Amino acid sequence: MKLRIATGLAVVTLAVALAGCSAPSAQEPMYSEGTSETSEAPDTGAESSQGALTTAESSLGEIVVDGEGMTVYMFDNDTKGADESACAGECATNWPAVTTESGVPEVEGVTGEVGTITGVDGSTQVTLNGWPLYSFAGDGASGDTNGQGVGDVWWVLTPAGEKIGG
What spans are recorded as compositionally biased (Polar residues) (predicted)? Predict the structure, then answer.
């Protein structure tokens, strides 16, 4: 019985995640103007440790995680170095941006180039090698990689900022 419930929850989670990857409706802007300048983000109530980047071992090897140990992802629909995120609306609900309250994210063990852009909600979104970073609502615990390969557009990153798979 527990297996049936867990399987059902996994299917629902995957369906919600894939829905977040679909094209936005006509009312939802897909892109938001952004800049590569570092500026103070509005207080969103997010914990400051979220914007920190570090590494952790996983079934995929050594990966990048945020300051809370949650896996970070890149999105193939983003454009590297474009200073804007392609994930808005329902996508941003399922794939929240990794943000920082300070101008410069804390980094430990990550060798790729870390930066920031202005996210779709005006917060300061962390980037790695020019790719905006996201967490996944379907990851329930530190080190989960449930978003890996979702929709064939979401990827876990190595400490050098290279996507794993895809």
Answer: 33-58
| C-alpha dihedral sign at 73, 161, 108, 118 | negative
Distance set, CA 100 to CA 42, 57, 104, 123, 136 (Å): 10, 23, 8, 8, 17
Point out which residues pair with 128 in neighbouring strands. 114, 131
Question: Quick one: tokens of 156?
Answer: 């876990």
For residue 83, give the 3-state DSSP assignment. Answer: coil
Query: What's this model's pTM, rounded to 2 decimal places?
Result: 0.72
25-64 residue pLDDT tens: 333 333 233 333 333 333 333 333 567 999 999 999 999 9
The C-alpha atoms of residue 17 and residue 71 are separated, in whole angstroms, by 15
Quickly count: other Cβ atoms within 10 Å of residue 121's Cβ: 16
The count of residues in the chain is 166
Residue type, 82: A
Q: Three-state SS for 6?
A: helix
Helix (H) or strand (E) holding 63: strand 61-66
Among 1, 157, 140, which residue's Cα sits nearest to residue 75?
157
Q: How far apart are CA 111 and CA 133, in angstroms?
A: 15
CA 79 from centre of chain? 14
